[in-house]
Structures are given as C-alpha cells and as structure tokens.
Design goal:
Layout: E1 4-7, H1 18-26, E2 29-32, H2 46-58, E3 63-67, E4 70-73, E5 76-82, H3 88-102, E6 109-112, H4 127-138, E7 141-145, H5 146-156, H6 160-165, E8 172-177, E9 180-183, E10 186-189, H7 197-206, E11 214-217, H8 226-242, E12 250-252
Helix pairs in contact: 3-4
Organism: Xanthomonas populi
InterPro entries: MbnB/TglH/ChrH, Xyl_isomerase-like_sf
Pfam families: MbnB_TglH_ChrH
Length: 256
C-alpha cells in the first residue's frame, strides 16, 4: 500500500486501534468523510463541525473529502448517501458549507460524485456543471469515483466521457474504483465485488485526460483472497503506467 484512506468520522471517537495507528504513522493519509451532508437544507451541526475541526487539526493528512450528497435532514439520519437536489439555491448553500470546512484545514478539500438511481425533483443544474461551479467558487478539488460514473451512465444512458469533459480535469486529485452488482434491472454500487471490466476500461479512458495523485480501490465486504485484491492493484498500476503517469500517491484495497 502507498496510502491509507481513513473514514473521517472513525477518528471522531477515542479508539484503541494499534494497527490503524501504526499504519497512519507510516503512510500518507487521505481522510474520507461520510456524514458532512452537503445537500442538507440545514446548517451543519455544531458538534459535527467541532469534531471535524479537531480531527483535521490532530491528524496529518494529504487532503480530506466528502460526497455531493445528503445524509441527514431536520435532524433525521437517512443512513445512506442520498443524491441531493442541484439548483442555484443548493449551489449557494453548498458553496457556503465548503468554505466553512475549508477553514478547518490548510489541506485541499475534495468533493466526490455519488450514484443516483432516480431523477431528483427540483434539480435544474446537471451534476457535472454543479461540480464545476463548486470548484470555481471555492477552489475545492474533486474525487472522481469512476465506478459511480459508470453506474450512472449505464442506468441513465449517457456518455461518461461527455460527463468527464464538463469537469475541470485539473481539479481531479483522487480517483475511486470499486465493484458493484446488478439488481432491480439496474446497476448498483456495492463495494462488494471485484472491479468490473467495464470500469477498468473507463478508468483507462479517464487516465488519458487526468493525472490523479491518488487511486483508491474500495472493497468493504465479501472479501476474497488477498492475492486477488493485490492483483487489482497491479491492473491499476499497469493502466497508469500505460499512460505515462507516475506512480500515484495512493493505491490501496480498502478504506479503514
């Protein structure tokens, strides 16, 4: 492994995890949040902000990130990364939230694209345009999840490369790869299978246009042989090398 991606909220609580502590002391760290809930209409909870600020201050990290999503509304936890409404009002509110969390760290903040299985009522801005405008307004970076892009393109019948062309490519700092499942006549993001061949092919195309500093292969459950997961690292490294990209800061098989 060349880098460790750690779930930010895991560090909010005091825990005795000697293995994690050793890894964090030896490897560069990417902090990846789940509960920032940029899409909520409410203000960010003060307790969450305090925990985030403390964690960012106390933890050496290359950058920190979260999703373009909604995980709570009016104090109710959704329990999942839900797609958010994308309108001018939402853009203004999201810009304000990003600027607020950027003040907690001098390291870059990245926003990740998520899967969206149905149209969101009230949305008036295409997701790629919304992400581009966030970057322009805040200077934030992007975490491009290639699996999420492939799933959305397949389910909603659009060209993923056309989507990519709408993004500020120089702002893509990290890339996620993962596997999924086919359920309910659609493709679903699960992080429970090997990376699909089609996702590798899309990653290969994407690498013609970007120079990511980090590539993370996500695997959260249904683990097979460790040697099989290491083989996926070799595939990713081979694709990067084919496009003349230097060894990235990050290649790992699972988030903590």
């Amino acid at each position: 492994m060349d880098i460790l991606e750690v779930t930010t909220e895991k560090l909010f609580i005091q825990n005795d995890d000697p293995v994690l502590e050793i890894l964090m002391s030896r490897l560069p760290v990417s902090l990846h949040g789940l509960d920032l809930s940029l899409g909520s209409s409410n203000e960010m909870p003060q307790t969450y902000c305090a925990n985030l600020a403390h964690t960012l201050s106390a933890t050496s990290h290359e950058w920190f990130s979260d999703h373009l999503s909604l995980t709570a509304e009016d104090g109710v936890e959704v329990g999942h990364l839900m797609p958010m409404q994308l309108s001018n009002e939402d853009l203004e509110r999201t810009v304000a939230k990003i600027r607020a969390v950027q003040a907690f760290s001098d390291r870059p903040f990245l926003v990740e694209n998520i899967t969206c299985y149905y149209p969101i009522p009230g949305s008036s801005i295409p997701e790629a345009d919304f992400l581009r405008m966030l970057c322009e307004a805040t200077g934030c970076g992007l975490l491009l999840d290639v699996n999420n892009l492939y799933i959305n393109a397949s389910n909603h019948h659009f060209d993923p490369m056309t989507y990519l062309e709408q993004l500020p490519l120089d702002r893509i700092i990290e890339v996620h790869l993962a596997g999924g499942s086919r359920k309910f006549r659609m493709m679903v993001d699960t992080h429970a299978t090997d990376v699909w061949r089609e996702v590798w092919e899309l990653f290969d195309q994407v690498c013609r246009h970007i120079r990511p500093a980090a590539v993370i292969i996500e695997r959260d459950s249904n683990f097979g042989l460790f040697s099989d997961m290491l083989a996926e690292l070799d595939i990713a490294r081979g694709i990067l090398a084919r496009h003349g990209l230097r060894k990235p800061l990050a290649l790992t098989v699972a988030a903590a």
